[in-house]
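Chain A, query sequence.
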Amino acid sequence: MDFKTEKYRVYIDDEEGNILAELTFPLVDENTVSINKTYVSPTLRGQGVAGKIMEKAVEVIEDNCWKVRIECSYAENWFKKHPEKNGLLI
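Chain A, predicted structure.
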């Protein structure tokens, strides 16, 4: 999978530019982002794409030394399964 990253977004698109998977984490303040949206196209569901895109987003968040506020149910469940990353949470 070819993940694309922007400052507050990780996504996968197809050749036509249609979004196939996306996770957004806008800045709340200078040290905090809010994971507010996780989307995976029905064509990619069941392949672990949401977990992979979450891992990529966490890499970006860690690289920027941000803390995380969760507003997305998928992200909340992901952090429960990855307690080693709970130090990022506020």
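The first strand starts at residue 4 and ends at 6. The chain has a mean pLDDT of 97.
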